[in-house]
Write a structure and sequence with these properties.
single chain, mainly alpha
Length: about 110
Protein backbone atom coordinates (compact mmCIF):
# COMPACT_ATOMS: atom_id res chain seq x y z
CA UNK A 1 0.00 0.00 0.00
CA UNK A 2 1.21 3.42 -0.77
CA UNK A 3 1.19 6.32 1.68
CA UNK A 4 -1.82 7.95 0.01
CA UNK A 5 -3.83 4.72 0.15
CA UNK A 6 -3.12 4.41 3.87
CA UNK A 7 -4.10 8.00 4.62
CA UNK A 8 -7.32 7.60 2.60
CA UNK A 9 -8.07 4.36 4.41
CA UNK A 10 -7.41 6.01 7.81
CA UNK A 11 -9.66 8.93 6.86
CA UNK A 12 -12.45 6.52 5.94
CA UNK A 13 -12.03 4.70 9.24
CA UNK A 14 -12.05 8.00 11.11
CA UNK A 15 -15.22 9.15 9.33
CA UNK A 16 -16.87 5.79 9.99
CA UNK A 17 -15.87 5.95 13.65
CA UNK A 18 -17.37 9.43 13.99
CA UNK A 19 -20.55 8.21 12.28
CA UNK A 20 -20.79 5.23 14.64
CA UNK A 21 -20.15 7.45 17.67
CA UNK A 22 -22.74 10.00 16.60
CA UNK A 23 -25.31 7.26 15.87
CA UNK A 24 -24.60 5.67 19.24
CA UNK A 25 -25.06 9.03 20.97
CA UNK A 26 -28.33 9.65 19.12
CA UNK A 27 -29.69 6.21 20.00
CA UNK A 28 -28.63 6.58 23.65
CA UNK A 29 -30.39 9.96 23.89
CA UNK A 30 -33.48 8.62 22.09
CA UNK A 31 -33.88 5.60 24.35
CA UNK A 32 -33.11 7.65 27.44
CA UNK A 33 -35.87 10.15 26.61
CA UNK A 34 -38.27 7.33 25.73
CA UNK A 35 -37.51 5.64 29.05
CA UNK A 36 -38.07 8.91 30.93
CA UNK A 37 -41.41 9.47 29.14
CA UNK A 38 -42.62 6.00 30.10
CA UNK A 39 -41.51 6.50 33.69
CA UNK A 40 -43.34 9.84 33.89
CA UNK A 41 -46.50 8.26 32.51
CA UNK A 42 -46.27 5.36 34.97
CA UNK A 43 -45.75 7.77 37.88
CA UNK A 44 -48.74 9.84 36.75
CA UNK A 45 -50.96 6.79 36.55
CA UNK A 46 -49.79 5.59 39.95
CA UNK A 47 -50.52 8.99 41.52
CA UNK A 48 -54.00 8.95 39.96
CA UNK A 49 -54.61 5.46 41.31
CA UNK A 50 -53.48 6.53 44.79
CA UNK A 51 -55.96 9.45 44.72
CA UNK A 52 -58.77 7.09 43.70
CA UNK A 53 -57.85 4.62 46.44
CA UNK A 54 -57.89 7.48 48.95
CA UNK A 55 -61.35 8.46 47.70
CA UNK A 56 -62.59 4.89 48.15
CA UNK A 57 -61.06 4.83 51.62
CA UNK A 58 -62.94 8.02 52.52
CA UNK A 59 -66.17 6.54 51.19
CA UNK A 60 -65.68 3.44 53.29
CA UNK A 61 -65.11 5.41 56.48
CA UNK A 62 -67.48 8.30 55.88
CA UNK A 63 -70.01 6.44 53.77
CA UNK A 64 -72.76 6.92 56.33
CA UNK A 65 -72.95 10.57 55.25
CA UNK A 66 -73.80 9.46 51.70
CA UNK A 67 -76.13 6.60 52.63
CA UNK A 68 -73.65 3.75 52.33
CA UNK A 69 -73.52 1.22 55.16
CA UNK A 70 -70.82 2.25 57.63
CA UNK A 71 -68.13 0.00 59.05
CA UNK A 72 -68.13 -0.58 62.80
CA UNK A 73 -67.42 2.62 64.70
CA UNK A 74 -64.30 1.31 66.47
CA UNK A 75 -62.66 0.60 63.09
CA UNK A 76 -63.58 4.08 61.86
CA UNK A 77 -62.18 5.62 65.03
CA UNK A 78 -58.89 3.75 64.62
CA UNK A 79 -58.54 4.79 60.99
CA UNK A 80 -59.61 8.41 61.50
CA UNK A 81 -56.05 9.74 62.05
CA UNK A 82 -55.14 8.47 58.57
CA UNK A 83 -57.83 10.73 57.11
CA UNK A 84 -56.40 14.04 58.31
CA UNK A 85 -55.65 15.32 54.80
CA UNK A 86 -59.05 14.28 53.43
CA UNK A 87 -60.86 15.93 56.32
CA UNK A 88 -58.94 19.17 55.72
CA UNK A 89 -59.87 19.09 52.04
CA UNK A 90 -63.53 18.40 52.87
CA UNK A 91 -63.55 21.25 55.41
CA UNK A 92 -61.94 23.62 52.90
CA UNK A 93 -64.53 22.66 50.28
CA UNK A 94 -67.36 23.27 52.75
CA UNK A 95 -65.97 26.71 53.64
CA UNK A 96 -65.60 27.69 49.97
CA UNK A 97 -68.87 26.18 48.73
CA UNK A 98 -70.15 29.49 47.36
CA UNK A 99 -66.83 30.41 45.64
CA UNK A 100 -66.62 28.86 42.15
CA UNK A 101 -62.88 29.47 41.76
CA UNK A 102 -62.19 27.85 45.13
CA UNK A 103 -64.32 24.88 44.10
CA UNK A 104 -62.24 24.43 40.93
CA UNK A 105 -59.04 24.71 42.96
CA UNK A 106 -60.41 22.08 45.35
CA UNK A 107 -60.90 19.69 42.44
CA UNK A 108 -57.18 19.97 41.67
CA UNK A 109 -56.23 19.85 45.38
CA UNK A 110 -54.67 23.32 45.26
CA UNK A 111 -54.22 24.87 48.68
Amino acid sequence: MSGQDRSGHNQQQGAFGRLVASTRGFLRAFFSSTDQAHRNKAVGLTECEVRELENMFVLLLMGSFTGLPAPPSFISAELLPLMEHELKVANRRAENADDALAEIAGCFDVT
